[in-house]
Design goal:
The structure is a homodimer. Chain A is α/β, with parallel strands linked by helices and about 575 residues long. The first copy, chain A, contains 15 helices and 30 strands. Chains A and B meet through β2, β3, α7 and α8 of A and β2, β3, α7 and α8 of B.
């Protein structure tokens, strides 16, 4: 009512109204972090001239694993905020698989510590990971059973229950799985889904359990069925998932309210150079989705899905979380306000991402000392070989005839060794097998990121080099390592073996460099030297996977052996 | 997954999918009151053949004062359910103004007592009345101040805070008003609005307070502005509010998600003969609103607005609340399921509305004995006269010259007396004035419903008849009464003086009869003998109103006098 001065008034903006899809020319008046009016003639302590930019509610990323950026929460926030994101629904699935609940607590604290003029530039709703570990065939750093889930989900720490990846358990009405979901729902908390290729009766069952979202759709038909069954479809714009446009074809004027945008897994390079949700908006509009639909998909729709009552719209009583963008085509972000505080402008973030440090997530790589001999693999005759293929994460089973010398296999041409070393409890567990299609020659490389238990994955054709890679990874507290003859290089992912505490520019650069070093060992075109390794332990994707417990035949859902008994 | 038999399967229905706006041919499978799948091939204990009817989520009436039907909750439920309503958001504003919180408790209990095969055919979300009393110029049966509101809103009894009619207090930032709203919001409860003609800065302020709905829009322009400011627009299909179609013109493919349907005030005759939300749907479709939009406005949209997570859609995990309708044009209801139980079929309700009785809401009419002399009105010279007009509820101030005889005014032609008698505490308070435009000759009539304090309103040109009307109303425990010479008739509204405990057919018939008797006294065309009286105490509608405390000049917002001092 203009009885008092506002704290802030944003003038000269084209204000996008997400309730009507219209643009209003008007001032946005802010007091105590809230929008108090859209109108004209406001008097304020601070006036910001938007110079004709479009004012949108800042973006809500509906589902993201921050760890996949390999950035610390603080560095992630710098990139995310400057691309217009105000809230992320983050599932700390990776760090919790390593550090347990302490990992989630660290994430929350780290994000909370970023304070600027009294606000948190990036607000985080943390989901309690629902599937720790993801499969029974591996050793993870923590186990969250039904009872623990019931205790944890009640905490303020957690906004909801993270993607329920173990969909066979839900569809099969496994008691522990359902008890986790029930615990969340009874606390009024949302349960996120992960329902690849679920359809028909199975999809009905999955939805009947009370799960509300899915980000695994692969095409419009898949989206349509999930929309019909009441799931919010999370249109994913990840670094490796490439079906945003295909999925968005399912959108109609009637159903767009049920689609929301997410990143899921997005690396630092993409975050810096292409952006986050702003990139998704650009892509949607480019393919012909009306801008007002696209914007709703990351503002009002997401706020409704997640019950974020004060978010997702520029209207009185809503938080003054605002992204100013140049146009509704490229969505170049010109300024970002969080609760009425300017936190990013142009290409600059205005806040300093002060680091939060926690012993709980440091020095997490605990392995028994390994020697070259530990990588011997005594195989002969017919053996199962895991075959990787360019541009994908599926593997195949290849059967080869091999011979052995002094208790170690003689590697056929184009074949190297793959080892997965348990790294949480220094148990000495190690799985080993042969790997084809990868192309490495004359050394070894490894990484401590390997979904979902994040044991060490080492690949090589030289036992000594493989042992050295393991040692380098241990020394660094996790990370990536290359050993090529005398050449050695390691890049530390010192936070839980998953994330670097360095500035994002350095993370991007160092990742590029070590990847280039790895490439020199002849790794095939179309295969990412490190990033292709991180899925080789994920024992839910066909056909063969390797964990610290051995070779897994995913189709049969059992541990198998390399040696084929005849 | 069809591992077990379902409780119920509905076959042969055209299933409306509110997420996509499409019709699916499919079976609806129900177990434990929940939809577990939409598909085919289900095996069930009970099979219901819908014979090609359309299956819709049953309707949610977003805002209704049940008391306005003059029916007991049980009789209301019979009519509401058979017209396809599954949930009502009920504001027991009237009964709470008479009986205090005990009135709300009675409503809740009465609805809860209607059980049929383990379900409540009509589910009720009760809103805590926010404005008791509505104005300072009258004596209500209860007062709910800020502190009491803070205590009460935390109870499970109340779903949210009822329409905040005292909008000037909100816009004026009155501390007590804001403390009520704040108390509701801090408990995560919704606050309903009532914002007639609010616009611009005032609307911004009202919305900024956190109020989420409005049902007082009068045209599309009004709707559009309220939609923009983030209010859900409640499209009202009441008995006396006639702007559903006018308001619905504001709907677009983009914004229809923010419109919801409500009845507000609807009498028994309309409920029985025209229906409730089914009637609103018919009217919307008739004016050209696409049926999928209209249906969303009373299902998904309303469920989202009020956070009714399990309501508003036919999809797995949702409550099996289903209305079967003949077509998507007339919406004739053929069958109604509540949590999977058939509760109405054709024109029949299958449940019996067992009465819940409460002393708290009986014998609520407490008045001092009144005699003919109490209705004497000693006026002479220039006096203010309240003038009523046909087909509206506004009044005007008319100035007349009158003379007095033996301490009582000589009524000019076309003028009668109006009296409002306090009836909660037998205080003897009585307001009196002259009334023109009404047309009554030769008797008196009165009613115990008078918004919002529900004191007795008596109109007549004969002091003896007026006293007799008051006595009849007292005897009946409230209701309607007519005295025309020797003829006397009363119809009891024995529940709080607002509702009858008789079957709805009788209520409709008796109301019609007593109204016909009243009409015989010459009441003008276009003026409802009783229903026009119920707003004459509502001291928030211009120009003159009469309460037990006297004549109120609403424009000046002060008590005035009939006698004009010269």
């Amino acid at each position: 009512m203009k009885r008092e001065k506002c704290d802030l008034v944003i003038k000269g903006a084209k204000v996008f109204n997400v309730f009507t899809g219209e643009i209003e020319e008007g001032e946005i008046a802010v007091k105590n972090g809230k929008i108090v009016g859209i109108g004209s003639g406001y008097d304020a302590q601070e006036v910001y001239n938007a110079n004709g930019a479009y004012a949108l509610p800042s973006f809500i990323d509906a589902h993201i694993h921050v760890e996949s950026s390999m950035l610390s929460p603080e560095e992630f926030a710098l990139l995310s905020v400057k691309h217009g994101t105000g809230v992320i629904i983050a599932d700390p699935h990776e760090i919790v698989n390593v550090c347990g609940i302490a990992g989630a607590e660290y994430m929350k604290e780290a994000f909370s510590h970023i304070l600027y003029r009294g606000v948190n530039p990036l607000e985080v709703c943390l989901q309690l990971p629902s599937c720790v570990p993801a499969s029974p065939f591996e050793t993870s750093g923590a186990v969250l059973n039904g009872k623990e889930t019931e205790q944890e989900i009640g905490r303020d720490l957690f906004y909801g229950l993270g993607e329920f990846m173990n969909y066979p358990a839900v569809v099969g009405a496994d008691e522990e799985a359902l008890s986790k979901i029930e615990a969340a729902l009874s606390q009024g908390k949302i349960v996120d889904g992960h329902a690849p290729a679920l359809s028909g009766d199975a999809l009905n069952s999955y939805a009947a359990a009370g799960i509300k979202t899915d980000h695994e759709c692969v095409n419009a038909e898949d989206c349509r069925e999930k929309l019909k069954r009441g799931l919010y479809v999370q249109l994913r714009n990840g670094s490796s998932a490439h079906n945003l446009e295909e999925n968005a074809k399912a959108m109609t004027a009637y159903n767009f309210r049920r689609s929301i945008l997410c990143s899921d897994d997005r690396n630092a390079y993409d975050l810096k150079n292409h952006g986050e949700i702003d990139d998704a908006l650009k892509r949607l509009v480019r393919m012909g989705i009306p801008a007002p639909w696209a914007i709703a998909c990351t503002t009002l729709n997401t706020a409704e899905c997640y019950g974020l009552k004060d978010k997702g719209a520029l209207a009185p009583s809503y938080d003054a979380d605002i992204a100013l963008v140049e146009d509704l085509k490229d969505f170049r972000v010109l300024g970002v306000f969080k609760r009425g505080v300017l936190v990013a402008e142009g290409d600059k973030t205005l806040f300093h991402a002060e680091r939060y440090s926690s012993k709980e997530v440091k020095s997490t790589v605990k392995i028994k000392e390994v020697t070259a001999d530990d990588f011997r693999l005594d195989l002969s005759g017919k053996v199962r070989v895991m075959r990787v293929k360019p541009n994908g994460i599926m593997t195949e089973e290849e059967v080869l005839n091999v011979s052995s010398q002094k208790g170690d296999v003689l590697l056929p041409k184009g074949v190297c060794k793959l080892a997965v070393i348990e790294r949480h409890f220094a148990s000495g567990n190690m799985g080993k097998c042969l790997l084809s299609g990868y192309g490495l020659k004359g050394g070894a490389l490894g990484i401590s990121v390997s979904h979902d238990s994040h044991n060490l994955v080492v690949v090589g054709d030289d036992n000594t080099a493989m042992a050295r890679v393991a040692a380098l990874l241990k020394e660094a507290g996790g990370g990536m390592a290359v050993v090529n003859g005398k050449f050695e290089r390691a890049f530390a992912l010192d936070i839980a073996g998953l994330m670097s505490s360095k500035p994002y520019e350095e993370v991007i650069l160092e990742t590029e460099e070590i990847t280039a070093h790895a490439r020199r060992m002849g790794i095939k075109e179309g295969i990412e030297p490190f990033m292709s390794l991180v899925f080789l332990s994920l024992a839910v994707i066909p056909k063969l996977r390797l964990t610290d417990k051995g070779l897994v035949d995913v189709d049969k859902f059992e541990i198998t052996t390399s040696q084929i008994k005849e």
